[in-house]
Amino acid sequence: MSTDATPEGVPGRWRGRARLDLRRLGRVALGGSGSRGRMPDAIDHVAKVHRAHHPGADLDILRRAYLLAESSHRGQTRKSGEPYITHPLAVTLILAELGAETTTLTASLLHDTVEDTEVTLDQVRGQFGEEVRFLVDGVTKLEKVDYGAAAEPETFRKMLVATGNDVRVMSIKLADRLHNMRTLGVMRPEKQVRIAKVTRDVLIPLAERLGVQALKTELEDLVFAILHPEEYARTREFVLGHAGGLATLEATAERVRAVLREADIAADVLVKQRHFVSVHRVLLNRAEVTGSDLGRLLVLVAEDADCYGVLGELHTCFTPFISEFKDFIATPKFNLYQSLHTAVACPGGEAAQVLIRTHQMHRVAEAGVVALGNPYAAPETPDATDGERVDPTRPGWLSRLLEWQQATPDPDTFWTSLRDELALDREITVFRADGGTIGLPAGSSCVDAAYAQHGDGGHRCIGARVNGRLATLSTVLRDGDTLQLLMSRDSASGPSPDWLEHARTPAARIAIERWLSTHPAAEAAPPVPPVPLAPGRPCPPPRATAPAARWPVVVTADGADLAAASVRLAGCCTPVPPDEVTGFAVRGGAVTVHRAQCPAVHRMVASGRQPVGIRWNSPGGGGARDYRVTLRAESFSRPHLLADLTEAIAAEGAAVISAAVEPPHEQRVRHTYTLQLPDAGRLPELMRAMRRVPGVYDVARAGRPVATARL
Fold this sequence. Notes:
- Helix 3 (60-73) runs parallel beside helix 5.
- The model is unreliable at 1-20, 30-35, 380-393, 521-551, 619-625 and 704-711 (pLDDT under 50).
- The chain is α+β, with helices and mostly antiparallel strands and 711 residues long.
- The chain is built from 26 helices and 20 strands.
- The strands form five sheets. The protein has a five-stranded mixed sheet with strand order 1-2-5-4-3. A five-stranded mixed sheet has the order 7-6-10-8-9, with helices on one face.
């Protein structure tokens, strides 16, 4: 790999752009800084590129920054032999081409002065102001003499904290790493591999999250060439061997131009080549690859509405592949990316991928936060909405990262957790029931959402509703889901060890592990036996059939009342007035009465047994006035739940005949009660009272499936 350029044949966004001639710049730098007040020749090209993006930019501060950097680094050389000043110049040009504003360029010229020369931060502040000082300090490495092996992770921690206050810190670091990767060929192979792995695990995901695709794609190709040289060579050979395949895309582009001209839509239609890593992914994922897979069509228009106009024309005049359509304008990605994606058939039947966006969307797609200029300047029209996407200076992923890093003092744990977090390379947005949003990595569960929304308060989460339906805490959330977290009122509530199996984000795992370390896990609770109702007297099983008795029902056969019949109310469904009931004759001449909806009724009818007609006695009829019923309460496990439920039951005048509690499962527990009511008409109010107990989410009669059975 050349020390000054990307590997030969890399199809990147930088091809065709003016590159700094490092040897020429080295000669210019060694030859002097030019006359007083005049822009030095070495920085003249940077100034022209910067003025193209910012016509009114003040170039004097750039001149002064260059003079300080050049004089400070004078006599220093890089491992490749060039004067050291060529490095900050190259980093500054990278950022200038992306459209960075003057303050960022000033700091990039000075980014190594404090680290490698006698210049101090106070001097930088005195000459260039607090903003530039902060940016330079943010990218200055910590000394290995002071931190030893922890210097690299602690440097990244410091840089991320600084990025939380100003994202331009990370912009400078990414450009710095890109130029270092371009010139990595002079390093020992083992050092190349080490730097490439850190770039792959940390810097490339950060570039993706900040939306700086122009840097991300070139970094990917450079890392690919170092870590996977054989696969890189095969991919390069494939690209060079199918270079003519782009002619098919160019022909399709010409047809698109004609269609849009006829529709009177002003648009630029370009063929955008894929970079090597993108081509490699296509080769891995598709059985057959054609020349059109080496690139995509890019359509650039002036207004948002024109994007949809172009889409309509393409889908009208070409055969679209509807499964390829995605609208990232209506729902932008978490890294500010906006575009319409579709695919249409080329003349030969091949699929041509098409990206449709405005010129401003394209600038943001390429340069991400760098294209925003100074993101901390007061906007002309402040955003009124509340959401993480409207504040690119502190995106949701960065806020989460900054929160959990504070709880991770150990450098090794921080470094591992950072790479785990950044490995989750896609983000979803979940809508809260109260109208807010939560940004989460793809694959996150309700446990992750609880800690993302409530921090350590997530310990009190006892359940969730996803899209209106009760769900386990292990439920994996999808983009666009609506989430309502159910929280315990008991401040002593805490997570169980199995939550760690459901937590995907470092923030959740660290919080759970910290709580468990301060609250030693108790032994698994044994099955809870039935609750005795009197000293020394065990409870009957909750499904025990009621003893034979005279009940206020009338058994009829062929229209005649059989008042003398012995009647049993089935224990499986415990019918009470005014339930619709039916009966079946059993041995000894007795009749068992079931609710009509009882599953046992369907089984007996299916087996050929004939039901007996049953109706309830009139209110004035004789018989006992006490009614027995079995209820099941589905709830989230919490302390004192059994006491609260029995208190609610007693307040409604019902007597508990028996009660049983099943062992908790995934923070859920089922209580089964057999109750005796003085008046069957009070049953609905009793069930409502039980549902009002905190933690209880459903109460149902025994004999029918509960709406939210075990998930």
